[in-house]
Design a protein that fits this description.
Killer Toxin P4, Chain A, binds 2-acetamido-2-deoxy-beta-D-glucopyranose, GNK2
Amino acid sequence: MQLLFLYFLITCLCDFADANLQDITSGDPPYNICTNSNNYATDSPFENNLYNLLGVLSLNTSVTKFSSFYTGDNSDRVYGLYMCFNYNYTTYVDCKNCIATTASQHIVRYCPNEKEAIVWEDSCLLHYSSEDFFGKLDVKGNIPKANSQNVSDPERYRSVVNRSLSTLSKQAAYNPVNNMSATGVESFTKTETLYALVQCTRDLSGDDCSSCLQTATREILSCCYFLRGARVHSRSCFLRYELYDFVNGASESSVSSGNQAKGKGKCMPQFQHKNLLK
Ligand SMILES: *[C@@H]1O[C@H](CO)[C@@H](O)[C@H](O)[C@H]1NC(C)=O
Ligand SMILES: *[C@@H]1O[C@H](CO)[C@@H](O)[C@H](O)[C@H]1NC(C)=O
Ligand SMILES: *[C@@H]1O[C@H](CO)[C@@H](O)[C@H](O)[C@H]1NC(C)=O
Ligand SMILES: *[C@@H]1O[C@H](CO)[C@@H](O)[C@H](O)[C@H]1NC(C)=O
Ligand SMILES: *[C@@H]1O[C@H](CO)[C@@H](O)[C@H](O)[C@H]1NC(C)=O
C-alpha cells in the first residue's frame, strides 16, 4: 500500500545582515536548519541511535526544561539536547508535548537522513548532531522574527529594549539559580510595557551565554529596533520581547486589534512540497 504524504519543508537561511525588514516579519514556527553536510542511511545504526536519543530526551521533559544526552559509538554516535522556553506558564507537560510530540516528529520529517538538524517550535528547541556540540557557543544562522508593527518612539524603544535585554542577559548568564533564563518587565510609555525573556542552553558557560544573548540583541536591534516585538532563534540561546505580557501567556490580540501585515521577500520561509512514498 502506498500512502502519499505532503509536507512542508521550511527553510529560512537568510543572510541576516541583508535582510530587509519585511523579510523577517512573517511565518510561524517551526523553523529548522538541516546542515546538509552528511547523511545517514535509513535503518542504519545511526538512525536507531537517533530515535533512541529522541526517546530518552523526551522522557526527561517530565523533570527538566533542558537536557542533553548522547548515545552510540564512534561514527554512529548521536549527541542531542532540547530546551523548553521558560515562559512563566510553561509546565513540564507543555515541555513534553513540545519535544516528544511536536519537535521530535518535525526534526526527522523536515531533515530526513541528516546527521545534524535543529528545529525551533513555538515553545522549544531540539538539536542533534553526529558531532559533539555540547558546551560550544554557536550563533551561526540565527533566525530572527519580528512583529511587523512600528512602535511610537523607536529610538527610545531601542534603548529600553537594549537595557532590559542586557540586564536580563546578566541574570541568566551569571546567576546559577536562574537556570540560564530570565524574564523582565519595564515600562516604555505611559500605556505600554515591555516584557522580555532571555534563555540559553544550559550546557554553555556563563560567558558564552552572555555572548550569545549579546549577539542576538545586537542582531535584532540592528534590523528591527523600531518594531514592537521580536524573537531570535539561535542554536545556543533564545530571546523574545513584546509590548504585551507573553511571559504569562497573554496574546497580542488581547491588547491590540488589527491584522499583522504579512511581508514578502527573499528571506520569507519557503514552503516546499515534497512527495514521500511510503
Ligand atoms: C531549575 O531547574 C530545576 C530542574 O532542572 C528545577 O527543579 C528548578 O525549579 C529550576 N529553577 C528555576 C528557578 O527555574
Ligand atoms: C534526566 O534528568 C535527570 C534529572 O535532572 C538527570 O539526572 C539525568 O541525567 C537526565 N537524563 C538525561 C538523559 O538527560
Ligand atoms: C516603520 O519605521 C521604519 C523606521 O523608522 C520606517 O522606515 C517605516 O516606513 C515605518 N513603517 C510604517 C508602516 O510606518
Ligand atoms: C546596547 O547597550 C550597550 C551597552 O550596554 C551598547 O554598547 C550598545 O551600543 C547598545 N546597542 C544599541 C543598539 O543601542
Ligand atoms: C515570572 O515568574 C518569576 C518567578 O515567579 C517572577 O520573578 C517574574 O517576575 C515573572 N515574570 C513576569 C514577566 O511576570
